[in-house]
Every structure is written in C-alpha cells, then in structure tokens.
Amino acid sequence: MKKVGFIGLGVMGLGMAANLLRKGFEVAVYNRTAGKADSLLALGATELGSPSAVAGSVDVVITMISNDSAIREVYFGENGIFEGIRSGVTLIDSSTISPTLAKELAAEAEARSAAFLDAPVTGSKPAAVDGTLVFMVGGNADRLGEVEDILLAMGRKVIPMGPNGSGSIAKLAHNTIVGINVVALAEGMAIAASGGIDGHAFVELVQSGGAASRAAEMKGPKLLEGNYDVQFSLELMLKDLRLSSVLSDSLNVPTPLLEASKSLFQVGDAMGLGALDMSSVGQAYEQWIGRKLGHKG
Amino acid sequence: MKKVGFIGLGVMGLGMAANLLRKGFEVAVYNRTAGKADSLLALGATELGSPSAVAGSVDVVITMISNDSAIREVYFGENGIFEGIRSGVTLIDSSTISPTLAKELAAEAEARSAAFLDAPVTGSKPAAVDGTLVFMVGGNADRLGEVEDILLAMGRKVIPMGPNGSGSIAKLAHNTIVGINVVALAEGMAIAASGGIDGHAFVELVQSGGAASRAAEMKGPKLLEGNYDVQFSLELMLKDLRLSSVLSDSLNVPTPLLEASKSLFQVGDAMGLGALDMSSVGQAYEQWIGRKLGHKG
Amino acid sequence: MKKVGFIGLGVMGLGMAANLLRKGFEVAVYNRTAGKADSLLALGATELGSPSAVAGSVDVVITMISNDSAIREVYFGENGIFEGIRSGVTLIDSSTISPTLAKELAAEAEARSAAFLDAPVTGSKPAAVDGTLVFMVGGNADRLGEVEDILLAMGRKVIPMGPNGSGSIAKLAHNTIVGINVVALAEGMAIAASGGIDGHAFVELVQSGGAASRAAEMKGPKLLEGNYDVQFSLELMLKDLRLSSVLSDSLNVPTPLLEASKSLFQVGDAMGLGALDMSSVGQAYEQWIGRKLGHKG
Amino acid sequence: MKKVGFIGLGVMGLGMAANLLRKGFEVAVYNRTAGKADSLLALGATELGSPSAVAGSVDVVITMISNDSAIREVYFGENGIFEGIRSGVTLIDSSTISPTLAKELAAEAEARSAAFLDAPVTGSKPAAVDGTLVFMVGGNADRLGEVEDILLAMGRKVIPMGPNGSGSIAKLAHNTIVGINVVALAEGMAIAASGGIDGHAFVELVQSGGAASRAAEMKGPKLLEGNYDVQFSLELMLKDLRLSSVLSDSLNVPTPLLEASKSLFQVGDAMGLGALDMSSVGQAYEQWIGRKLGHKG
C-alpha cells in the first residue's frame, strides 16, 4: 500500500488525514504549528519535522494549506517539499490556489522527475470528516489514476478537469457561483424582510421552488438565526473571489456578478466579519434595511 | 363542492384548470383568445363569454395572466371581473404582478364584499401539469383556509405569506434569487470554459458541490447543449426583475446583484433572445468569450 | 409683455421668479405653504390663492415642484391648473418628472387648447439666483420660440430636445451622469486615501487631469472637508436615478453603472444621509475603509 | 546642466524627450525597436545601445514604457538599467505600473545607492507634445526637488504624492475615475438616444451642466461621430482598471463602480475594440440599443 504524507492539519486536513488512516494507509504528517497531530498519532500516524522530511519518505504527498504564500513556503521554502523530494513521488495539493501557482508547482515537480496534481475539494468540515469531499483534479490522467484510491479514501467523487491548473480553475469558477448564490439569498431575504414577509416562510419558499440551492440549504438557517459560526469564513470566500477575479481578468471574461459579489464581501470584511461564516455578508443588508433577515412576519 | 372559475388558459393555466377538473371541481373557464379551452371542455369544463360572466356564476375565481396591464383589463375592464362579481366570491390571482396592483385589487374586492388573494406560484409548465406547484399567498388567513383545497388540487404546497401583497412580494424576492442564480451559473461556466475546462465536467462538479442549485439542475443541461426551448422565457424573467427593482426601490433596499443581473437579461433581450428560455442569457457570455459554455475540454 | 404665473416657491423657484420680476415680467405666484412669497411681493409679484387662479389669469404658467405626485396634484387636483386654465396658455414645468407624466400633461393641455413644455433645468440654487440655469425643453418648437424670452430671463441657455417628454428624458440621462460621476469621485478618493495619498493632493490631481469634472469641482471640496451642506440632496439624486432606472428599463437600455450607483445612493439613504448633499454618499466609503476621504497624507 | 537618459520612445516618450532637448538638456536615448529616435537625433540627442549604457552615462534616467513586464525587463533584464547604473543616479518612471513594482524598483535602486521616483503622468499625446503633462510623484521629496526642472520641461505641473508607490497609486485612482466617467457618458448618451434625443443636443447639454467632465469634452465628439482614433486605447484603460482592481483589493476598498466599468471595457475588448480609443466602449451600448449614440433626433 502506498505511503502517504499529509502536510497542513487545519480543520480540513485533520479530517482528511484521519480518513486515510482509517482506510489503512500509512501516513506521515507535518504541520507548521506543533500539537495539531495528536489525534492522528493516536490513529497510527507518524509525525515528521519538515515538509522536506515528509517528501523524502513517502510515495504521495498531500498538501492542504490556507493560501498561495503559505503553499509557496511549504513547497519552495527551506526544508520544503522540493528540497527533499524523491523522483517518482506524486504531489497533490488540495488547497484553493491560483492556477498560475498550480502550473508553477507542476513544472517544478516535473523538473525533479516527480508529478503534481492540483486537486482542490468542494465540501467543508463535515465533508472532510465524513469522507464525502469531491475532488476536482488538474494534471496527468495516468498519475491521477494511480492515486485515485487515496482521494476516494477521503472523498466520494473524483472529477478529472484537464491539464495542470484545471483543478484550480474549476474550483475558482465553482466558488464564484457559491459566493454569488449566498449573496443572492441574502439579497432576496432582504427584499422579503423589508416587505414584511416572515423570514422562515420565505426560506421555506426558496427551498420549495426554483430558487433552491445548496447555499440556501446551508446558509438559510444561519441567516434566519443570525448564527455565524464558521462553515467557510467570509475572508476565505473573499480570497477565492479575488483569485477568481484575477483569473477571469487574465482570461478576458467579463464577470459582472462576481465583481458585484466581491464588493459585498469586501463590505462585510470592512464591517469586521472576516472571521465569521461567509453568510454574515447578510449583515450588510441588515444594516441597510434596519431589520433582521430573520424578520418575524 | 365549490364552483371555480378559471381565467387565462396559457401554458400554465391549462394545466392548472385540468387538475381542478380531474380532482372533481366544477370549472367555468374564459380565455381572451378563443379555442384554447377545447382540451378542458373535453374534461367537463364550461366555457363562458367574459370575465364578468365567470365572476357572476362561481364561488372562486382564479386568474393566471401574463402581466399587470392584462390583469388590470380582466379585473377592471369592460365585462371584467368586477363588473359581474357577486358578494362573497373569493378572487385568486396566481400571476406574477406588482404588490401595488395586488393591494389595489384587494381593496376593490373588499369594496364589493368579496375577497382577494394574491397567490403566485413557483414551478413552471411541468409542475402546472403534474399539480406540483407551490403557492405563496398574501391575504386573509381565513379566506385562504376556505380555498386551500382548491390550491392543493393544483399544487403540492401552500405557504401563507402575510397580508395582501405579501404573495407578490415573496414571488418577486424569490424570482430575484432565481434570476441571479441562473446568471451565476452562466458566469461560472464562462470562466471554466475560458480556462479550457470541459463544460460537462464542470456542471457535474457544480451539482456535486456547494454551488449546486435548482437553477443549475434545470439550466445546466440547456446551457451545455445550447437548447433554449422555453421553460421560463428570458423576457418574463426580465419583467419580474424589473418589478422587483421597482419594489426594492420603494422599500429602500439596495440590491446590487439584482441590478447587475437585470442588466444582463436586458443585454440578452437586446440580443433578440427574449422569447427563448431565460438561460439563453448565457449567450451573452458566449459572445464575449468567443466559446460555447458547453466547451469540450 | 406676457403675464407669467409661477407655482412652487422652493429654493429654486424663489430665485427663478425673482429673476422674472427683475427683468420686468408681471408675475403672479402661488405656493402651497403660505409665507414663502414675501420676498417676491416686495419685488412686485401678486400672490394668488390657487394654481387654478394662477392659470386663469396669465399667459404662461411655470411650475417648479418636487416630485411626480405633487405635480399631479397641482395640475389635476382640486383648484388645480387644469381647472382654471384658459385656452392659449403655455404651461412650462421645470421640475424633474417622469417622461410619462410629461406626456400626460401635454396631452391634457392640448385637450384644453393650451400647450405644455417640459423644461427641466441643470444648475442648482446659485444658478437659479444668478439666472444662469440651462433649460432643456421638450415640446412644440413654435411654442418654445414664443416663451424663450421668459426662459432666458431665468437662465443662460435653452436647448430644444424634441417632442414632449424629451426634456424629461434628457434631464434624467444628464443626472444619471452626474450621479455616476459623483460616486466615481468618491470611489477614486477612497482608493487614494486607503493607499495613504493626501486627499487635497489627489483632488488637485483629479482637477488637473483627465478625471476632471464639474462633479469633482463641486463635490471635491465637500468630500475633503466633510461639509455636506446641501447643494443637491442625496434623496433627490436617488429619486432621479430611480426615475432614470424605470425610464431605461422602459427603453430597454442596459445601464449597469446607473444601477450600481443607485445602489450606493440607497446605501447612503439607509445610513440616514438623505437630507444631506448627495456627495455624502462618500461616507459609505469612509465607513468601509475606516478613514476620511480628506485623509492627510 | 544634468544629463538625462530617456528610455521608451513611443507616442508619449517621443514628445517628452523632444521637449527636454528643446529646453536645452543633453539627452541620451534608447528604444527597443530601432529607428524611433530619428526625430530626436535631429534635435541633438545621442542614441545608445542598451538601458545599461544609458544608465551608466547620465544623471537622471526617465522610462516611459507600456507595462509591468516590459518595465521589469528594462530595469532588471540583461543589459538593463540596474546592470549599468552608477551610484547617485535618479531613476524616474513615468509609465503606469503597479505600486508593488514601483516599491520593488525603489528598493533595488536604494540598494545600489541610486534613487527611484514613480512619476506617472496625466495627459495623452497632445500634452506630451505641448509639454503640458501633469506629473504625480511618489518618492523622496529632496530627490524630487533636484529633478523638478526636468519634469517641468515636459509638463506644466508636478504634484508630490508621498513615498514610493504613491505616484502609481494616485495614477490608478485617477484613471479609475477617468474610466468610469467615460462609461457614464456612454451610458447617459445611450439612454438619451434610446429616448429619441438628438445626440449633439445631449452632449451640448452635458457640457453645459453638472454632468460636464473632461471625459465628455474629449470623448463626446468621438462618440457622436463614431471616430475611434486613439487618444488612449481601450486595452490600456482596461490594463489600468485591472491594476486598480488588484490594488483596491489589496487595500480592501470595495469599488463597485470600478468593477462594473472594468466589465464593460472587457466586453469592449471582447468585441475586438482593444486597439481603438477607449471611448469605443460606447459601441457595446450601440449594439444593445440598436442605435448610434450620435442619433439624430
């Protein structure tokens, strides 16, 4: 059975690595901040001292890290992955990074006789814990075939998207839709609440009709209750929309809804909501209309 | 059993009236253009010569008509509903009209010792045919209670929304979300297609992830195939967004996504797509990116 | 010399009527709220008791009133203009009203053998006082020729725009540009201030370069000083943008910048800034960036 | 008198360098494409073979080049400025570059005991030829003081903006306003034209009223005549708006009008208008309304 390295034990990474261990993979882990690996060690993981050490002792390395600059550090930095990598290793990044960086990592991996797959996921903490993530993957189809069992140990579906960078592009395009759908829900709820409609009745209607969406299913209850515990933070969504805006600029695609939504998440961030769930963007509307979105009709 | 009048035998109305007949209601119908009632006559309907005649011979009148000015004609015009109405009748309008007009109709009904409910629906032709519409209803709760059996003969759910006008407001807020979600899908597909991603893989991803929506379920296949047969026409969505824009203006709700989406449907309408399905708004993006949204990756 | 009636003695009307008197016209005035005419009586004006009385005793009636519903009352209401009007009279409305209402007033005037010109102005209080307004006029060119001397007694230029309604349309299109230019200035200043640039240096640059505008000339100093004394109130600009949005919808013109700007003025209005100068829309940006637009670099 | 080097002899650079020569400065020039310097040689310029050679033989180097990557090549590339630079030299870049790059160039210059000023200009070809440019300058005030005579040989005004990067930031904020104002004009003209208003009368009105702007002065005639000879190309404006969007993202400033305008220039670019004057963005509106903006009323 392939030996797997896992780097980045945040809220997503912990769940993913645990699923690998439960499915019987031998897993070596590394996290910049110490003390995160304890629950995994109990499941049989080995902890190593650097990305370089991980890359030097496994067949497949998975990274799950917050942003482009942290990824860059883990791959290119001192004691980083590329310092220790052996030929033949497959690198899989499941973070949401820019397509440009994905291609850069792929080129560097190839130069070292290794392979790289950009394999971001859709699904947040619960899906990471339950092993029901969906992977969208950019990179060589044969290499993907060799590691599909590993991905399916952590998720329920693997969708090949094309050459390197395609996974990143698909993720940004996907999350653009998520961000817009969340703002759409808040905006519709703001109209309804201002018109005196009961918030719960309206959300029931939304889910019964053509306006139904996963966003409404996940965020409707949060907006009704004003419960902004994090499923996916506003600042992470803003980060993704910025990456998507730069991407669509580089592809020369006019994206008026992406841009209008990005402005709204920026307003939310400026209101100090960055660390809350992205649905807290609804608070901008609440401030404007002087009424809660969970208005009782 | 209550006698029901049905006025407006378009694509929606025909299916709704047929379901009333199938459930055993006695139904008198009227349509401005002759010859539309034939299939209903075969099911036992009676055809009358004017809205006035219908309103004078039934307990409950249902109207299903395309826009504010046509509704105004049917209710207030010569040989219109208010000319023939008897006291005690309940009027139900299931069109999508402005809340202002809904309140006006309710006031006029009350002045004639009748009642009015604004009861628009979500669901398009298939739901009208199958009797699975969802009604959102504004108006007196007792009167709604008395006619709920009639509504449930045509639909699967009735959601009370508040006083008269609330049904209209809820519908416009709901359709605002629909319109935005459809453009969001097209915009995400445009980014993906421009980035070289296969359209089918991307839509599969959307439906597997947080971006999933009824809009994507209904319109994803249409956008992939460029099949713009009408489920709900672009010009009707544009009409609803305009009503919603006027409504949100009157309620003083800032609605940047509604407005950005309205502009895009206007662009689509200007491209001559008004009579096609609203998803044809995606053709604006196709023109801009010089590539089909159903791009083969 | 023609006898002139003047109805509506607000901040604009007072200055305009005074200029007519100074140029030697005989002027009969009416204002709904009493006591506004005193300064004009001192200049020789006659005060009458109703719009009807004014319309019955002059050759030309000028109206300058805040909105569509007040205009409707003055023309169509009890003791209104149309009740007292004599044949041959020319009615001139210099308010900013919807083109639809302008055409309705023109039709009613024609039915009474009178004439109507929609003649809104550009220029605010100082221009009304100095007699330097610019009139844009919709209506019959011959009738306009007959009253041009009256308009030029109050303004510096008269621009014929076409048939009735054209004056209104031109005004709304014009004010759409004004509204956008004001928000553009605030947005540019917000970027500059967030980047640490001195506000005064930036406004100097704007006025020295391709970004120069009347809006920047009028509003730059106000935004730098946070002085929102009214030149033209935020709520009036919002009213105009709403009329323009309805107009452009009816003309089927996609207007993404108008709509984005309208949303911002709505945000300003929701912040309680409606009665302040429209440039106070900049306070929305100040709240978002946590810094004054008049930032000292 | 200081010896000046000038690198980048495009449409702007040629005029600027000629003014330096006319004011008596000794000027050494370099351009990547040969044959551009002929008119300057006739005025007494010396032509050198590389940026490095220029930087090694003058007191002040001015660069005027199209984009970040070309600038990077000229400064950091083989035979680039930093290869040949002597200590004490002042580098002045008058291109429109990202603030990030401006700071990077300043840091590198300081490491080589030289100085850097980011000094972009407002004004297009005619101002470069006439010597009426306005310079907005980021960098050390003393170093700016030493070269102000050089800048004033090419322009009519020098505005200090703050530390390095401030010139770039000010330029992007300024051009954001320009871009929005141009689209605002086109959008207002589209409403007017659709309403049947004569285009020339409307532009006269704009320039007579509160909607007046340098953008309307420069672009109004072009939009009326459909003459899109380049003053400033659509693709360059799009480039600036993209830089401004990235900048405002990094500063966390919500910029809904910038984004809406950027989308429109992207649409224009997608229509194949990139190389035409930026006012050709009006053609998007013309396509949508099916009428020329220079409509004869």
Automatic annotation (TrEMBL), chains A, B, C, D:
It is an enzyme of class 1 (oxidoreductase). The keyword Oxidoreductase applies. Residues 3-162 form the 6-phosphogluconate dehydrogenase NADP-binding domain. GO terms for biological process: organic acid catabolic process. InterPro entries: 3-OH-isobutyrate_DH-rel_CS, 6-PGluconate_DH-like_C_sf, 6PGD_dom2, 6PGDH_NADP-bd, HIBADH-like_NADP-bd, HIBADH-related, NAD(P)-bd_dom_sf. Its EC number is 1.1.1.31. Residues 165-282 form the 3-hydroxyisobutyrate dehydrogenase-like NAD-binding domain. The active site is at K171. Gene3D superfamilies: N-(1-d-carboxylethyl)-l-norvaline Dehydrogenase, domain 2 (1.10.1040.10), NAD(P)-binding Rossmann-like Domain (3.40.50.720). Keywords: NAD, Oxidoreductase. It comes from the Bacteria. Signal peptide: none annotated. GO terms for molecular function: 3-hydroxyisobutyrate dehydrogenase activity; NAD binding; NADP binding. Belongs to the HIBADH-related family. This is 3-hydroxyisobutyrate dehydrogenase. It comes from Paenibacillus endophyticus.
